Structures are given as structure tokens and as C-alpha cells.
Amino acid sequence: MIRVLTYNIHHGEGTAGISLPEIAAVIKESSPDLVALQEVDMFMPRSRFANQARRLAKMLGMRYVYGRAESWFIIMRYGNAVLSRPRILRRNNLILSKVKERRALLCARIKTRQYPDFYFLSTHLGLSSDERSAQVEKIAQIVSSLKGPVILAGDFNTGPEAGEFRRLNGLLSFSTFTIPTYPSHEPIYCLDNIMVSRHWSVLGAATVKSPASDHLPLIVDLKYTHPH
After folding, report:
1. Where are the domains of the chain?
2. Cβ contact 181:216 at 8 Å
3. Closest by alpha carbon to 5, among 83, 88, 61?
């Protein structure tokens, strides 16, 4: 079994202000093997110029890679991250769109002892259906080019029923359909999700209740199965 967690951390800002230790404690509680993070700051004034992905990885004893979506003055960045207990062989960050708020897809190739090498992707899709449709089209092209099992995790800004995900039919399927993650104080929207290729079967899913961000983290347990 491999445990995957996806979490929009809202640059570490919860109801009590910015607290990366609180975010780390929420993640640690569920002992994930892989974590997809969204809205992660690097050297931003609002988050005290911290390299948030690196700090979280250090607090959790995990490896990490970071992929920017937006950047200002060269060093200030905002985007997605992957935390991993297994070894990360390589990473690739791809910009999905440049309209309004830039969106990106961070792709990490993961090596474990028990499974073939696989791809773990973290993303944060746009706010409008048109934006998401174009972004999902690019993701589908990328997933089609990957050789091996795939896990796509992130804040999709809409639920599994949205029509824009049809482009991924046959490539990936949703692991959960009815687990709300937003807003964290009273979740009613299923914005955060994890999609998997046919190589994986879903053993279970849950959220962790916490005010550390405006989203709740979603946890999914997966088992590798040989594709039919």
C-alpha cells in the first residue's frame, strides 16, 4: 500500500495566521508516503521569505521538489510542491496556462522497492471552466506520453462531475467522488482530489480536520495492481 495526500496549504495561512509547523503536524498525523502541495510560497514577503517546501520537507523528514507557477523579481515564487519518502528520480515543471493566474503541473518520477517506477503529479487548476478545459487538455497530452503508472493529485477547483475531465477518460480515473475539502471550517465542495491510472486500486480515502489552511488535506490509500 502507498498513502498519498494532497493539500492546498494556502501559503501556510490558517485561521490563526501563518504556521508551517501546524501544516507539518497535519501532514505528519496521517503518515503519507507522497504529498502533493499547492499554493506553496518561496521567498515571499507574506510568508516571511521562507522556502516553504524545503522547510516542510525538513520538518517531516521527506525529500522534496518544487515547481513554480508564478514568479516575481526572480527569487519570489508561488506554485506546487511534492514531498516524498521514496527517492525522487527526476522532476519536470510545465506551465499549463498563462492567462490570469498562471497554472503549472509538477511531475516527479518516483522510485520505490515494491513498485515499478511511477509518476506523481501535483497541480492547481484554474477558476473557470474554460481555463480548466485547456489545462486538462495539456495534462492529458502529458499523461499520454508517460510510460508507467501515474498518480495526479491537486486542487482541481471543481468536482469530479465537471465536464472538462472527460478528456482524461481512459487515462485516469478519480479515486474519490464525494469527499468535500473546502472550506476547511465547513467543507461542502469536493475541490481537491487524486486521480490514478489503471495500475492502481483505491483502498480507502479520508480527510483530516484542521484549520491550518482554508482547504482540508485529502488522503487516499492505493495498492498497485498489474493493469489488465
Report:
1. 2-224
2. yes
3. 83
**Does position 73 have pLDDT exceeding 80, yes or no?**
no
Cis amide leading into 183 (omega within 30) = yes
The pLDDT mean for the chain works out to 93
The per-residue pLDDT for range 152-193, each reduced to its tens digit, is 999 999 999 999 999 999 999 999 999 999 999 999 999 999
Any bridge partners for residue 105, and if so which? 94, 123
Distance CA 120, CA 215 (A): 21
**pLDDT per residue as tens digits for the range 74-102:** 777 789 999 999 999 999 999 998 777 89
d(CA 225, CA 149): 10
Collapse the DSSP code of 24 into the 3-class scheme (helix H, G, I; strand E, B; otherwise coil) and give the result: helix
**Residue holding cell 477547483?**
157
What is the C-alpha to C-alpha distance for residues 91 and 156, in angstroms, rounded to an integer? 21
**Cβ atoms < 10 Å from Cβ of 159:** 15
* The CATH number fitting domain 2-224, selected from 1.10.287.1080, 3.60.10.10, 3.30.70.100, 3.30.420.40: 3.60.10.10
Percent of the chain clearing pLDDT 90 (strictly above):
80
How deeply is 98 buried, as exposed, middle or buried, from its count of CB atoms within 10 A (0-12, 13-18, 19+)?
Answer: exposed
